[in-house]
Amino acid sequence: MPQSTDKDIFLTIGCKEPQILELRDDLFKEKDIEVWMLRLDEIHPVVSGNKLFKLIYFLKEARESVHKTIITFGGAYSNHLAATAFACAKMNLNCVGIVRGEKPKTLSHTLLFCRQCGMQLEFISRSSYRKMDKEFLNELKNKYGEHVLIPEGGFSLKGKEGAKLITNYFFDKNFSHVCLPVGTATTFAGIVDSYKSESEIIGFGVLKKLEDIEERFADLEVPVSRKYSFIGDYHFGGYAKKSEELISFMNDFYSKHSIPLDFVYTAKMMFGIYDLINKEYFAAGSDILCIHTGGLQGNDSLPKESLLF
Ligand SMILES: *Cc1c(COP(=O)(O)O)cnc(C)c1O
């Protein structure tokens, strides 16, 4: 578990330690490399993956406050909203989810879950969501009172601090490469910021136009001296876009390794890693750690018969 001071939040929520497993494949043998996976998807059946790490210091702040209220933002399938709703329920915190877009006739499985957890949902138009100006934030204060505000996806210094805790699981192992999928880049920033080793840290972008990593890292105060690689070629057409090739890759991966991937993030990273291994991006002798950042609830939006798991 992460640092002892934060351990109790992980315990309250019911998390367990993630394993690091070696993945076996003839391809890896042939290229003389090792591939390992940090199973953050297994820390908890509901709040799996990186989201809880990014939330941890916000949860702590809300727990120590008088108002005990969290407000945050996301789309209808947001892993972040689901994780926030569940964590708040476990910690007896009030929470409000501001959802992008008009209220649909039927709520997504993610939003139904959030509501079951006690999250109050408020829908706002995409244009006001984009603006998110002072006036709107003031309205929130008038309506819901004092609260802890979590930016979308946890993109913030506090979110980065929480993501740093992830490196505790592998900082003493000298992997030649550490790979993770990148959305807002908060988790990437945390790992690049805190992992002081010779490893090459590689972020795999899951959005089409993620060209501002440098700016994001500057906003998140990652020292410019830190090295990292960013690969943007495996977004499959953009955020939450998918193809038959990606879905069949997920099924093959599951048949081989018995590990489920999510189609929005981890499948794209693993597809990229396989492709790069084939193209000999990784030198012989490399040992690569892939971070499984969870997000499996998102697969519920796929047609039932498309996945083997
Ligand atoms: C949110 C999410 C990410 C991206 O994390 P960022 O910190 O926003 O870059 C990666 N993987 C999964 C499964 C996620 O839910």
Structural commentary:
The structure is a single chain. By secondary structure, the protein is of the alpha/beta class. The protein contains 12 helices and 10 strands. The strands form 2 sheets. It has a 6-stranded mixed beta sheet, with helices on both faces. A 4-stranded parallel beta sheet has the order 5-4-3-6. Helix 8 crosses helix 9. The protein is globular, with a radius of gyration of 19 Å.
Query: How are strands sequenced across the largest beta sheet?
Result: 1-2-10-7-8-9
In sequence order, what are the helices and strands, one letter per element? HEHEHEHEHEHHEHEHEHEHHE
Biggest sheet features: 6 strands, mixed
CATH fold node name of the largest domain: Rossmann fold
What fraction, in percent, of the residue positions are helical? 25-40%
Number of domains: 2
Number of helices: 12
What would CATH call the architecture of the largest domain?
A: 3-Layer(aba) Sandwich
Structural class: alpha/beta
Radius of gyration: 19 Å
The percentage of residues in β strands lies in: 15-25%
Give the distinct bound molecules. pyridoxal-5'-phosphate
The top level CATH class name of the largest domain: Alpha Beta
Task: Please state the overall shape, judged from the principal axes of the Cα atoms.
Answer: globular
Distance between the termini: 28 Å
**What's the total number of strands?**
10
Low-confidence runs: none
Q: Provide the residue-averaged pLDDT.
A: 95
